[in-house]
Amino acid sequence: MSTPPTELPTGRTPGRTWTVRLTGHADRTATVSCSTGACTLPPRSRDVAGLRRFAALHAASHAKAARVRERASCQCWAQSCAAHEGMRVHCSGSTVLVLRHDPAVARVWHLAEVCAACAKVMTHTRVVGLPAPTARPATAAPERSERAGQNVPAPAAPAAVAVGFSSPTPTGADEAPRRSPGQARHGQRRGTPRGGQRR
Predict the structure, then answer these.
(1) Is the pLDDT of residue 179 over 70?
(2) What is the mean pLDDT of residues 58-79?
(3) Strand extents, DSSP E, the chain
(4) For the chain, is the Cβ count within 10 Å smaller at the N or the C terminus?
């Protein structure tokens, strides 16, 4: 397997990653952490099952909020394709967003922008996001149909995406993950201390 070059291919931006992790402690409590520092997380708790459910939902909210960028470089390639070590593959296809989670371990949820070829051979992985269709360039003025005598509207511009989500490489294209009203207190007990791209 080849070593990735030190520079990104021309015109590409680094693929993003998000990692949500459940960490257990010696006193039988656990904490949830997220690589996105702006996220609000529940406090350290003994309700490990509840925190695990929260972590899974939190990763899913990042997947839903992130808009996949077609020109992002493959994050798997950037990590020397360690996610499919021993499987030879050449990066190709469109950029997709994948979620890696090994149910046997059930402690880490990892989202990444990778190429379609790598996504197919990564273990414990499913595609959770595709790039948005490329918008057609708008015409300078509406065309007029000679036969119908009616204006033909120009293609509509893509809907704006709310800003406020903080990722490792902010783009302003993501929406902040939100929790349902009950999640803020999920797993919380009174008196417990707070813890805490190859192409």
Answers:
(1) no
(2) 92
(3) 17-24, 30-34, 95-100, 108-115, 125-129, 143-144, 151-152
(4) N
Using DSSP bridges, classify how beta strands 108-115 and 17-24 pair: parallel, antiparallel or unpaired: antiparallel
Going from the C-alpha of 161 to that of each of 45, 171, 173, the distances in angstroms are: 34, 11, 6
pLDDT at 148 over 70: no
User: What one-letter code names the amino acid at 20?
Assistant: V
Separation between Cα atoms, residue 63 and residue 167, nearest integer Å: 12
pTM of the model: 0.63
* 3-state helix vs strand vs coil in the chain, percent to 5: 20, 20, 60
Tell me, what's the pLDDT at 167? 36
Encode pLDDT of 80-96 as tens digits.
888 888 888 899 999 99
